[in-house]
Amino acid sequence: RYRRVVRNLPVVQWALDNDGLFTLAEGLALISLGRRAERMVGSSIFDLYADNAQILKYFTQAREGLVIAGPFEQGDATFDSHWGPLRDDTGSIVGVTAIALDVTERRRAEIARRETEARMTILERLAATGRLATGVAHEINNPLTYVLSNLDEINARLSTKEDMETVRRCTREAIDGAKRVAAIVRDLRVFSGRPQKGQPRCQPAKVVDSAITLMRNQIRHRARLEVDCRPVPEATIEDGRLAQVLVNLLMNACQAIPEGNVEDNFIRLEMAYEPPWIIIRIADSGEGIAPEVMPHLFEPFFTTRRIGEGSGLGLSVSYGIMTEAGGTIEVESTKGRGAVFKVRLPVASTKAEISEGDMAPTIPAPSRRLRILVIDDEPPVGRALARNLSEHDVTVETRAVAALERLHRGECFDVLLTDMMMPEMSGIQFYEHLQRDLPELASKVIFISGGVFGPEATNFAANQKPIIYEKPLDIRLLQEHLRDLAAGKENKPS
């Protein structure tokens, strides 16, 4: 009766003597191993599984008296197995017994589930990016409007030689607008952040600021935004992943509040360190969540929104991100009385990062003039850098190949400031050429980048850890760096 049961289960049961000869072989899963019970008995495990080192290892360890549990693969099948010594009445080991469960379909289902979750994360991020696009376009177009109009005004007044005070006012406003555009692009970079290698770390305060900037336009048409963020330590989560969670939760809060009654509605974001967690709460005065909906809230594709207002993936993906990071996400709500989402982030460090809003100090003149070779395929960028770095001797090339020709001719430069992504020869290829043919110059390279990294640039940045300044450049930081180089310090960011 026992054999009849085993023969109909997806398992394998073996018994072997000390020489490795099978004395018992039963179970439906023998089919997955390509074996028949009657042909296995009397055969040697060393002959039948000569090419399966894991099975032979388990047998040898069990024969030595160890109890083993572990997986093995045979062909396309995967098994979870348990092995142990077989003893006689005196306690002497006379063989080995093993039982293995065929988990092939379960493993395939697990792999498929992980792949589906990965695709869901990408789809949700694309959906969130699409929902952000309208608001971001609005935020960018506003400052661009007065940047362009002020530049037109400057051009007109310079041509008629009118008063310089108006010109100065126009330039100040144009600079302010350009900085706003740069800030929006910076925040989008956080949202789409590149995966970090090793243990991820982020500064939650900066990510919160970025998420608020991205969502501000959507929020202001529906509610007052209230923010109370206390100093917190670093968290063990990638900044892009945390940004995705916060944007999803703020988007969810927005969609819970109808447009048109801003003063009577609020969205409140609070952040504090409540050991051992960093806590972020996002509350809204919206329609709340019905009791029958609460159990399904974090399920994929579940949504109560109208078509076009959400994919039903945002909360599910956010839940997955927080679980993977070792944190949690919870919700409290009463229908008609709003909702509060609570995010717990694991702490990476107890040192709080506090943003400072002080004005940048005046940069003193460098102790000596450096010879700088600027390489950028955009001529206006090269000209702008030459003007901003006029306290040094700047040479501009628009092609990395031409820059290499200068260096091979023996022209000397203290700094090689190169764009990362260029046609014909990229900054990365330029650097690799130096490493190979002019290694003494490779340490003089400083990269500037537009911030959009493909696989090659991502791998290069992770492996080489070069100095990279992202466009639009913070010219004061670059000037400080060059001042340090002029003073004889190492080539590293100031």
Spell out the key features of this protein:
Heat Shock Protein 90, five-stranded antiparallel β-sheet, Beta-Lactamase, flat, alpha/beta, Rossmann fold
Provide a concise account of the structure shown.
With 494 residues, the chain is of the alpha/beta class.
Give the helix/strand class.
alpha/beta
Strand content: 15-25%
Q: Strand arrangement, largest sheet?
A: 2-1-5-4-3
Give the N-to-C terminal Cα separation: 78 Å
The residue ranges in which pLDDT falls below 50 over 5 or more consecutive positions are 351-362
Q: What is CATH's topology name of the largest domain?
A: Heat Shock Protein 90
Description:
By secondary structure, the protein is of the alpha/beta class. It has 3 domains: about 1-105, 2-Layer Sandwich (Beta-Lactamase), CATH 3.30.450.20; about 200-350, Heat Shock Protein 90 (2-Layer Sandwich), CATH 3.30.565; about 370-485, 3-Layer(aba) Sandwich (Rossmann fold), CATH 3.40.50. The chain has helices spanning about 1-5, 35-40, 45-50, 55-65, 105-160, 165-190, 205-220, 240-255, 315-325, 380-390, 400-410, 425-435, 440, 455-465, 475-485; strands spanning about 10-15, 20-25, 70-75, 75-85, 95-100, 225-230, 265-275, 275-285, 330-335, 340-345, 370-375, 395, 415-420, 445-450, 470. The strands form 3 sheets. The protein has a 5-stranded antiparallel beta sheet with strand order 2-1-5-4-3, with helices on both faces. The protein has a 5-stranded mixed beta sheet with strand order 6-7-8-10-9, with helices on one face. Helix 8 (about 240-255) packs antiparallel against helix 9 (about 315-325). The protein starts with a helix and ends in an 8-residue tail after the last helix.
